[in-house]
Design brief:
Radius of gyration: 20 Å
Shape: globular
CATH class of the largest domain: Alpha Beta
Order of helices and strands: EHHHEHHHEHEHEHEHEHEHHEEEEE
Helix content: 25-40%
CATH architecture of the largest domain: 3-Layer(aba) Sandwich
Oligomer: single chain
Number of domains: 2
Largest sheet: 11 strands, mixed
Strand order of the largest sheet: 3-2-4-5-1-6-13-12-7-8-10
Number of helices: 13
Structural class: alpha/beta
CATH superfamily of the largest domain: Thiolase/Chalcone synthase
CATH topology of the largest domain: Peroxisomal Thiolase, Chain A, domain 1
Number of strands: 13
Length: 393
Amino acid sequence: MLGDRRVVATGLGVVSPAGSGLDAFWQGMVGEPAHEPKDGVADFDAGAQYDSPKELRRSDRVIALGLAAAAEALDDAGELGLDPRRIGIVFTTGGGVGTFRENVFVHDEKGARRVSPFAIPSYMPNGAAAQISMRYGLQGPCECHGTACSSGTNALGNAARLIAAGRCEVVLAGGGEAPINEAVVTGFDRTGGASEQGLCRPFDVDRDGFVVSEGAGLLVLESLEHALERGARIYGEILGHGCTTDAHHITTPDPDGTIAKGALQVALADAGLRPGDIRCYSAHGTGTEFNDSMEANLVAEIFGTDGPAVCALKGSIGHAIDGSGAVEAIAVLLSFVKQTLPASKNHRTLDPSFPPIDVVPDGKSRKWTPAPTVSANFAFGGHNSALVLAPYE
């Protein structure tokens, strides 16, 4: 169990290439995304998050993305009516990589005295969490986890534990990333995992890699008691969380998948559920040779080939690195409300070398009766994470 108290989601906020704001995001998940993931959130106005151009210049884009997602999530949740010391924040990001790159150029071309005194506050990974906490006066725990592509899922799991253990009543939890610049994209290209087509095709026979993108997702997580007391709308419940580490390779998952499978098994045990109770699996689904192979076999081994529907969402949202897990969890929670499973964009033909898992194909979102769902992410460094989400009953 997570702890002594049940934890529910009562507010959601998202900025994504699929669409920004819950309505636009959902339309992008079941239809066409607002932007090509490789282009990021092309219409995002970072300046709208600040009162002046000066504030904008003192902040990285990932902080602006986080502020936008936080504003929507808190507005969606409604009045919390709490001592701010009982409200925490867990926001994960790799940091303000755009700010860092810009100030390296400034230093090399114009000298040390031209480097911004706000470079470090904008670049440091905890900067976004700190800025959100200051804007809203949140005085409980303020944390930033660094487990790369599994960070968002771990943020939600660890935030839920803060509530379940009684440390917080509410935690604003999730993550974001703004990595689209020449240096970062080239770095990912050099790993050999990025798509040359510029399309993420999860589990597809024609897949050739992931697409670096950007975005942010934040969830208002809350104790069930407090949510009921204030009459909050409840999107769903976090039942369990698990994480493991391959200790295998810095970028490639262990093809055996045994340790990755352990993260799902821990999450299921935490939730008090069996594999047969899970009716949807929200996949990491990067569209790479090694991840998709490991993950397809993992799904078949745990759930069987007649197991849950598989939704792989990175064809629509791209790979937002630290933000991915939170954005994907928001899609799962919206699928409970809409009673619809989003399609796996760009997936048309399952790789015939994979076991016959049930990937929801491109253009064929399907109606479903909401049920417990596993959302999983696997990261560079061998980090594996899984979350069990369920409709509130």
